[in-house]
Q: What sequence folds into this?
């Protein structure tokens, strides 16, 4: 990672603390970043009045993380109690929703959708055709290397028909002559949400076997969205419906 003393000095005091917290958090995920974290800690000690004790083991890194966040709260009272990614959360909300990538060529789009999907509690990612796999370096960079459940299939139709026969509803996100606004439909679960190629969209073969085709309403001159942006909007609507339906059942 390239982060210089000059870069450090351009940051506000609050953001310097955040930078060090982000670095320590990354160390919990990937121990090979230890030298990078130490370099940020040394810059902190060089330039700030408050000095930190450089940790010698994992427990001390956790202590430093907690201490830094306490300081940060004094600098910014608007922060959430848990503003950063959770490292040891035991219970995750997983919805009965799978995402299928049909020949999405950009690893950065794949990584962005994976990051959003993990945040929205998607249970599985189905990688098909030419789509970059989640373990590629470019996908991992954009997804922030989140831990997900994924599988690869060369032919998307095969896995879609298998899941359909097992009771999954198949929904494609695509603007067509018969697509329905995504916010005006009540989704059924479990389901598979399909996002297609950036240039050509979801294929006709997949649209024919879909139980529903949906688009996001737009009001400007542009009538299309980047697939990763569209995925974020679609996943919010669909997983929110799943959450509300689960709450209704519990009630």
A:
């Amino acid at each position: 990672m390239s982060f210089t003393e000059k870069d450090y000095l351009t940051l506000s005091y609050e953001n310097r603390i955040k930078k060090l917290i982000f670095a320590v958090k990354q160390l919990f995920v990937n121990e090979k970043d230890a030298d990078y974290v130490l370099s940020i800690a040394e810059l902190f000690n060089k330039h700030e009045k408050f000095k930190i004790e450089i940790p010698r083991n994992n427990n001390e890194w956790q202590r430093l993380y907690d201490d830094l966040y306490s300081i940060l709260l004094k600098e910014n009272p608007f922060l959430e109690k848990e503003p950063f990614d959770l490292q040891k959360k035991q219970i995750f909300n997983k919805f009965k929703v799978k995402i299928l990538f049909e020949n999405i060529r950009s690893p950065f789009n794949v990584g962005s959708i994976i990051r959003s999907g993990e945040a929205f509690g998607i249970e599985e990612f189905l990688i098909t055709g030419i789509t970059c796999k989640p373990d590629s370096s470019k996908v991992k960079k954009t997804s922030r290397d989140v831990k997900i459940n994924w599988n690869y299939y060369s032919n998307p139709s095969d896995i879609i028909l298998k899941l359909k026969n097992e009771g999954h509803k198949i929904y494609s996100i695509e603007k067509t002559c018969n697509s329905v606004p995504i916010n005006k439909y009540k989704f059924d679960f479990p389901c598979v949400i399909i996002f297609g190629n950036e240039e050509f969209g979801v294929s006709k073969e997949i649209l024919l076997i879909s139980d529903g085709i949906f688009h996001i309403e737009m009001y400007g001159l542009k009538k299309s969205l980047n697939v990763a942006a569209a995925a974020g909007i679609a996943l919010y609507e669909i997983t929110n419906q799943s959450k509300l339906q689960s709450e209704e059942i519990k009630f």
Observations:
- Residues 5-75 form one domain.
- The chain is about 45% helix and 15% strand.
- Residues 227-250 form the longest helix (24 residues).
